Amino acid sequence: MNSTVVADVVVVAPKKKHRQHLPQDIIDIFDSLFSESENTRLICGGNEPLYLPAKGLYKNKQTNYHQVIFAHGFYASALHEIAHWLVAGPQRRLQEDYGYWYCPDGRTVQQQAEFEKVEIYPQALEAILAHAAGFRFRISADNLSGKPVDRPAFAQKVHQRACDKLQQGLSPRMQLLVDHLQDFYQTSECFPQNLKNANMADW
């Protein structure tokens, strides 16, 4: 096993090169784990992500299963939407977009602070999933046309929550997915060490 020292932090590299991060792979992994046990499938969508419970209409089509729909075919969007699904409890998963109202881009300072407060936990889970898959994680402040965002401070909060969650233990759904991501992408030798030692400047 190789390792590199960067600014006194040891970053462990896996023996083998990671697979490419293809959207179909994360779809296949997710569906193999949850399509039957949770009646939920991961769907490659269009411009906007969405969660639809069973019987909801998407592109004029009704399904008898729940849909976690990610945007643009982006792997990062898939992980982000999966993280929100992992946060949501059983009753929330019976509501479109889990019953939450989304404050759009262009938020005020106060609105952005509230947005970041509720986003810390799902993005912490997303960071764990990304590192388990050997995929570069970037925080999503999601306020391009609003007030400037203190990205380093937000990244630090997300990182701390991710590390705390690893120490406390993952939920059964989360642990199952993390285990399969590590197996598929062969990251067991470098996860979770690389998450704990992550450089916040890269987030």
UniProtKB/TrEMBL annotation:
Alphabetical list of InterPro entries matching this protein: EpmC
Protein name: Elongation factor P hydroxylase
